[in-house]
Design goal:
- This protein is an all-alpha fold and 276 residues long.
- It is built from ten helices and no strands.
- The chain has a domain of 184 residues: Rhomboid-like (Rhomboid-like fold).
- Helix content is 70%, strand content 0%.
- α7 packs parallel to α9.
Length: 276
């Protein structure tokens, strides 16, 4: 009895000790596994050199596109500041239609304004539109700007009222018109988006081309500038940015051409058989 009891007691203590050690060991092992925080997944985002170069290219292109518009606006403000500081009147540098004294105004009139409000109203749209022109139409931007300037000035000198016509609004209307109609004519979605943006921002400008809407405003310069923009958009429709043609588009075109040739050859063979 005592041996059995001692044996059972020893077995029980060994079992409880072994189970306890196993349990503590297992719990300790499991505890360490549970308490360990999983290492966060780290991902490294690296930009490829091509993307960085492309971003740098478009940033540089944007900055370069602002140079000429910024220079023109700067000259306009310097002229106004000089006029105010020295109490001068540069109105005679405007356009007086059908008069020799008005001929220099074909070139100089966009730099002359009646006041700071007039200058401010022309500065922002001129800078924005000219920057968009030089950015999206860099190949023909100089030619479009120069021809818009000259065509509008000469047209006002020929068809304007007998008064001094001053301000850059004719140039603004010409650029807005060119950007809008050129995007529509080219059917390139990026340029069409620019056209819609022009309408959204400056769509109300269209009222300025009608007589009697605004007082003491050269509606002739607005209308003739608007027309010059349309003419130049049509004239330069095959120059400048075009809708890109992708490889799959060329393949489709070749397949269609081959199918057309096969159909024509088949028709020719049928005609020969009928004749025979």
């Amino acid at each position: 009895m005592r041996d059995g009891e001692m044996r059972r007691k020893g077995d029980g203590e060994k079992g409880r000790k072994g189970d306890g050690e196993k349990g503590r060991k297992g719990e300790g092992g499991n505890g360490r596994t549970k308490n360990q925080q999983p290492e966060p997944a780290t991902t490294t985002m690296t930009s490829s050199p091509e993307i960085l170069n492309e971003v740098a290219f478009y940033r540089k292109k944007m900055l370069l596109s602002m140079i000429i518009p910024g220079f023109l606006v700067l000259i306009m403000w310097l002229v106004m500041i000089v006029e105010v500081l020295f109490e001068l009147d540069f109105t005679t540098l405007g356009i007086w239609p059908l008069s020799l004294k008005g001929i220099p105004g074909i070139v100089t009139s966009p730099f002359i304004h009646s006041g700071f409000r007039h200058l401010f109203n022309n500065s922002l749209p001129l800078f924005f539109l000219a920057t968009a022109l030089f950015y999206f139409y860099s190949e023909i931007a100089f030619k479009v700007t120069a021809w818009t300037w000259l065509i509008t000035g000469i047209s006002v000198w020929l068809a304007g009222r007998s008064a001094w016509h001053i301000g850059a609004s004719g140039l603004v209307y010409g650029l807005a018109s060119f950007l809008f109609f050129s995007g529509i004519i080219r059917k390139y979605f990026r340029l069409i988006a620019l056209s819609l943006l022009i309408v959204f921002l400056y769509g109300s400008m269209v009222w300025g081309i009608f007589p009697g809407i605004y007082v003491n405003v050269s509606w002739e310069a607005h209308m003739l500038g608007f027309i010059s923009g349309i003419i130049l958009a049509i004239y330069y429709r095959n120059e400048g940015p075009m809708e890109p043609v992708y490889d799959w588009m060329e393949e489709d075109t070749l397949e269609e051409a081959e199918e057309d040739n096969d159909v024509k050859e088949g028709e020719a063979m049928d005609e020969e058989k009928e004749k025979g």
